[in-house]
Design a protein that fits this description.
The chain has helices at about 10-20, 100-115, 140-150, 165-170, 190-205; strands at about 5, 25-30, 55-60, 75-80, 90-100, 120-125, 155, 175-180, 185, 190. The chain is an alpha/beta fold.
Length: about 210
Amino acid sequence: MTRIKICGITNIEDARAAIDYGADALGFIWVPGTPRYVGSFPDAAELPDRLPPFLSLVAVCNTPNDIPTDALHRFDTIQYYAPCPTLIFGKRYVRAVRIRDEESLNETAVAIVVQRPAALHLDTYHKDLLGGSGEVFDWSLAVEAKARFDLPIILAGGLNPENVAEAVVTVRPYAVDVSSGVEAEPGRKDHAKLKAFIHAVRNADRTL
């Protein structure tokens, strides 16, 4: 079964809807200056304390140093983009990679030798954004990464209710990750799209 991560959570209503529809993980953005940064929304940083158990909570950051020390205990997984010389003991780490072309995979091969993560998060390269661009990359590169690196692949980048089923069938990733593709506006989810996205993934799983 493909795991589903709903990223860019900023409020309790969206978090509860994602859980009710069947999300496996929720992502909270710790990148200042971005549209879904938890510091820009009242009480967003404390939301994990209000959520039920048996749910994976992911802190998304450029480096783990961006996350306040007093917030780290709320998250079991850290998703990061930039190389980090020291990782925090007791946390699971997902290395986020922005995919542009074959060279992106070669750079990833070098990076995971230095610091091997628990999984790879593949997103679309954008010259100005770390993620959340809403743009799709060539999924054949995700298929290649899956075979080449022997790590769970979390597929992101432009996924939405209309294309996620095709993505699941084509790539067969460990998980899919969506943020802007199920939003009404940056930082607030469209619950109809959220439900449709999760149902599309589950329906695709039944065809595999």
